[in-house]
Amino acid sequence: MSSYARFGAAMVTAWEVLGVAYDVRGNHVKIDTPRPNKFLEKIFRATGRNVAIAVSFLQTDDRRESRVAYLACRSLDAYEDLAASPGDSARLLREAADFLAGRIDQMPDTARLVARNPNDELEIQLVNRLAQVRQELENLPAERRERVGGLIHDISDAMARHAVRNQVLEEDRWTYAGEVLGRACDYVFELLAITPETPVDTQTLGLILQTANDLRDLDQDSRPTGCTAAEFRWLLLLDAAAYGVCVPAILDQLSFCRWSRSRGAVAFMSATSARFLYRHIGLPLPLIFRFPLLFAFVNVFSPGAFKGLLNVLASLAVTPAGTLLDSGERPPSGRFRRQLGEQARWENDIILHHPRRGDGLRLFRALQMFQAGRSLLRWLDSKEHSASLKRRLSLAGDFLFARALRETDPLGTKIIAGFSDLGAHLSEIAEQQGSVDDREGDVAAYLAGLVADANRADPMEREQAVANAKYHSQQCYLRDRSISAG
Amino acid sequence: MNQDSDLGREEQSSVLRDRILSVSHDKLDSYVRSGSTTFESVAKETLARPGKHLRTLVAVGWGLYRDSSDLLEGLVKAALGIELIHEGSLVHDDVFDQSQYRRGQAAIHHQFGLRTANNFGLYLIARGISMLCETQDKYSFRLELPQINQLVSSQLMETLPPCTTFEQQRHRMEQVTDGKTGVLFRLASVLGAKVALADGASSDDTERAERFGRIIGRAYQIRDDIADFHEESMEGAYCGSDLAAGNWNWPALYWAEMASEWRDAVERVKACRDNPQGAQRLANEIRASGALLRAEQALEEQLQAAAEIAKQIPLSPGRELLRQFVSRMKLA
Known about the structure:
The structure holds two protein chains of two kinds. Chain A has helices at 3-23, 36-48, 50-55, 60-82, 86-100, 118-128, 130-138, 142-163, 170-192, 202-216, 229-244, 247-253, 261-281, 287-290, 292-301, 303-315, 319-324, 342-352, 357-376, 387-408, 413-433, 442-454, 459-485. By secondary structure, chain A is mainly alpha-helical. Chain B is mainly α. Chain B has a single domain, classed as Farnesyl Diphosphate Synthase, CATH 1.10.600.10. In chain B, a hairpin with a 2-residue loop joins β1 and β2. In chain B, α14 runs antiparallel to α15 (317-328). Chain A binds chain B through residues 226, 228, 230-231, 234, 238, 320, 324-326, 377, 380-381, 387, 390-392, 394-395, 397-399, 401-403, 405-406, 409, 413-414, 416-417, 420-421, 423-424, 427-428, 430-432, 434, and chain B through 36, 38-39, 92, 95-96, 98, 114-116, 118-120, 122-123, 125-127, 129-130, 133-134, 136-137, 142, 145-146, 148-149, 151-153, 155-157, 159-161, 163-164, 168, 171-172.
């Protein structure tokens, strides 16, 4: 399709999006229509709201597929949350997956599901008409049906496994988030065809979305033993802070075309999720989060607007300092663009080419935390911020450094020692030059060495890779600097 | 006869203790000096005020299962990583707590500025972690290094508003104490036990060492909190300075336990924040209430529990050292 045709199609979409956005504002408690398609659309808008708006940005076929994928996952969520016991929940989840895949014809028994609020009642309405979801799924073209089928299989399996465990434990939350919401992000990126060549850390995105869910349901869901609601909220916010610093770099990897409905959808979902976190923490909303729909429309046409979103998300890096430490003073914001500069992209690119995907993603996360922690120290010399804020920034820097080390722990002592030595070396450099800039490209050089070791490169090749990475990083630094000076 | 041998053992332990402290100080000194020219002046300043090297003593206590100079040297070297992390965390603690003094002299951030204090603290912590990694590789064992994360998260947890019940608050204070104070004692104890095992010791004391470290961490914190209720206990600190900084401590918690209403107690402590006079008044009230005695009792209970654990180790120079360590922690 030509650019102009895409532009025209985007304009038509705008009307449809506005229609959905207007419709989801209503409070749907009971959806009483015998027509399957109408029921599915209504229940989608009632249970999904923001997802329904985001999906309305997409083309008709993608819209239809994502609607059925969402409804299937939402039904699984109902079996997981509303069943009388963890055992029941696991059984119902397996039966639901079998039913949706067409392996059995008997719908799971929903009689023992217990609704605690109007949203639960909507979910029960949905599972009572699961046959219509299955029918809609069967009507999809084979490739799409297979994609949604894979998603349902993986998510129901993960939910069933976790139902019988205590997912409140930190480790379980992490795995659960990756296997459920992270898997859903994988699906979305595949559907929208925006997945880059390098691996995408959807596990982290899943954890952030899971954290937002947990914060929303703080009073309803179970908490770790002996943990008060305030402490659990605080633990969740610590996770949001540590993993949140990775999000801008992850979204920055996605590849959109110039005029892109997908970008509008992703921007809308990111903006509404971030808006929830801002509101929950009590931070004043940046302008773009006050009008997320308008902002999402702008994103359809403007890659620059998406960059703006990433910049705002990057400023959330100061969340631990600004909010977790209970102060009225607002943290500095909008100045954490280093994460999105060329030097940072180059470092990310090096580590995401690690031959072992899992290790590469772990190092990627550690790198984001490490660099975000260092970025906070820029403000220690500033005259415009109070001594109290500076102290909190300093503690937040320690927190992110500690989390980076924790992230590298499963990779062995050699990697932890390497990261620590790098930290010590950069502290010396920061002291000598009076800034935390990595002018010499030491971080890139270290990462290139790690990747070369993992690839079992010979000493000559390793040396060459390190030297190249260092030189390129220095060039990127100079370009970043000239852009920020300009 | 028994009394004579006790005295003899006591003397031997004191000699051993002095030797460990001297070796540990020398190793820390030469390591920091040789490591970085950038931080030379800050390092000199830090080393001019030597600490008590308690974590090294604990590590050697758990690891010195036979009388051997080589083993002792190895243990002190292994514990150096923990001492570096401890020193670095003190520099950062002082920044966060706005402390003006450390060991009788101006705190690093007061003398050299916030940026240098941050860089130097991070440098020491990072070097310490790297050194612990070397030790683990050398002796082929794994420490739970992610525990170090608790040093920061406990510091953060301390800033949360007080809990709604006494029981919850006590649980939180245990967590904060185990994280802030206990984590390095635990690592030191386990490190010593694992070095001994790798060196050929017959029994695996890792689990006991972990419990000992936790208990000593709690005892140390209670002792430190009691000191806050004695004027001129530390340079720059005054009676009730914890309360004035907005922090709960153990005697204050015992006082709240005795008070009729938890919520009133919370309000009283809250009113002390940034109010030194109010904090001193409340501190005097806490002293008069008998809560300090309760804290002293709690300290005694912890030390007894630690001594019981130390008794279960086979007879060795290390065991004597631990016994002496525990008895020296008692209040005069």
